[in-house]
Specification:
196 residues; alpha+beta; two-stranded antiparallel ribbon; 7 strands; disordered N terminus; cell junction; p53 apoptosis effector related to PMP-22
Length: 196
């Protein structure tokens, strides 16, 4: 016999866990200095969401310039940061929603809507940054958008996935709460003569 169920009560913590993972990746993106780096030696350029640093080929010290002096730099940082703050709020709301015995599924759908807002803010910040950076900051040699920028996109992709799951979760309310009996599928030679 095989039990077919969509979800289980213990599995309800997967979505808040994924939101926590998105928060960790967002922290790495916000704090990381690898948004843009020189692609090969000599490593003369690196940038974060907050500053751009360059150095000479033989120089060991980085000369950093704040990106907050540019309007687009403030806009990219603000939109990504606002999205991150709303993400933290959604995480807290998800933990609260899944902690109570009687889930409020309309509340869960609201969290999904907020997560789409988070994704929109993060995408705006992640698009403004490379477009305006390459237009207004002189680049030396071959450069690439690197690991911290990738963590920003990874966080956004996880948020979009969680947003869909949070919005669709109320459609399976009975399965999640365990109010529906599992359906068992089995075959027996006596009951299915047409299979012979």
């Amino acid at each position: 016999m095989v039990a077919c169920t969509l979800a289980c009560w213990r599995c309800r913590w997967l979505l808040p866990l994924l939101l926590g993972l998105a928060i960790i990746m967002g922290i790495i993106a916000l704090a990381g200095r690898g948004w843009l780096e020189s692609e090969s030696e000599p490593y003369v350029h690196q940038a974060s969401l907050w500053e751009s640093c360059t150095r000479g080929e033989q120089d060991l010290n980085w000369n950093c310039e704040s990106l907050m002096d540019y309007g687009w730099g403030r806009a990219a940082a603000a939109t990504y940061l606002v999205g991150f703050v709303i993400l933290v709020i959604c995480f807290a709301l998800a933990v609260i929603a899944f902690s109570i015995e009687i889930l409020r599924f309309n509340f869960v759908r609201g969290i999904g809507g907020l997560l789409f807002v988070v994704a929109a803010f993060q995408i705006i910040g992640l698009v403004i940054y490379p477009v305006k950076f390459t237009e207004e900051i002189p680049l030396i040699g071959a450069n690439m958008f690197s690991w911290a920028y990738g963590f920003g996109w990874a966080s956004t992709v996880v948020v979009i996935g969680c947003a869909f799951f949070f919005c669709c979760l109320p459609n399976w309310e009975d399965e999640v709460l365990g109010n529906i009996k599992p359906t068992y599928y089995y075959s027996s030679p006596d009951r299915a003569p047409y299979l012979n």
